[in-house]
Amino acid sequence: MKARIRKLTVFVEETRREMDRPVDPPTRKAAAVAVIRNPFAGRYVEDLSELIEIGAELGGLLGRRCVEALGIAPQAAESYGKAAMVGEDGELEHAAAILHPALGKPLREAVDKGAALVPSSKKRGGPGQVLDIPLGHKDAAYVRSHFDGMEVWLNDSPRADEIMVAVAVTDSGRPLPRIGGLTVSEVQGKDGLR
User: Fold this and answer.
1) Could you give the CA distance from residue 155 to residue 164 in angstroms, rounded to a whole number?
2) 92-99 vs 49-70: helix crossing angle, rounded to 10
3) What pLDDT, in 10s, does the model give residues 78-127?
4) In this structure, what are the phi and psi dihedrals at residue 26, rounded to the nearest 5 degrees?
5) CATH placement of domain 5-186
6) CA distance linking residue 38 with residue 31, whole number of Å
7) Which of its termini does the chain have fewer beta carbons within 10 Å around, N or C?
8) What is the C-alpha separation between 12 and 76, in angstroms, rounded?
9) What are the tens digits of pLDDT across the range 118-177?
10) What SS3 class is residue 67?
11) Which value, to the nearest 10 degrees, does the dihedral of the CA atoms of residues 28, 156, 64, 120 take?
């Protein structure tokens, strides 16, 4: 593995009540986070292909960790998202190199399909700062019940020369959705939109 991983962490969030109403079945989200050394910290490098390769490695690893944490079959995953935070000696393009060119394909394999774009965010930050992972339905971007997000943070990450990379997967949408739009039962999953 090209990625020099210092830490791997998995979070699972389960919502059982919302506005004092039962959520049945509970909605569940998992996020898997890798804290890696940034090979380009503190210097400008034109060719970011090493980070692109690292993104491909992490997409599969983190996606599988999420599915395992939820205890579901890959095809039972409903939404996903990705995010990265570079430490102060990195640049946003380092996060983009990890997230965009190659992370998506292995993530889609980990969740069995994924016709829709993987929502993403990137930022620069330091230890203990919150990283927001946007979420959307994996096969149909117009499923409003799955427009959501998950926050993660680690008290010691990212250090100045690190990148915190996160993937989130859910087995459901938001608790008590009721704003209309395309429903999960109507998803065709062909164009990534419907």
Assistant:
1) 12
2) 60
3) 999 999 999 999 999 999 999 999 999 999 999 999 999 999 999 999 99
4) -60, 150
5) 3.30.1330.110
6) 21
7) N
8) 16
9) 999 999 999 999 999 999 999 999 999 999 999 999 999 999 999 999 999 999 999 999
10) helix
11) 70
* Alpha-carbon distances, residue 14 vs 31, 156, 171 (angstroms): 12, 25, 10
And the tokens for 84?
Answer: 């990265």
Distance, C-alpha 85 to centroid of its chain: 12
Q: Between the CA atoms of 10, 14, 19 and 23, what dihedral angle is there, to the nearest 10 degrees?
A: 150
Written as six digits, the tokens of 35 are 């804290």
Q: Which of 53, 52, 51, 77 is closest to 64 using CA atoms?
A: 77
Q: Which sign does the torsion angle of CA 78, 71, 66, 104 carry? A: negative
Give all strands (DSSP E) within 109-161, no chain letters: 120-124, 131-137, 148-152
Q: What six digits make up the tokens of 113?
A: 């399909």
Tokens 């959705």 found at:
177
Beta partners for 165?
34, 84
Is it the case that residue 190 has pLDDT exceeding 90? no
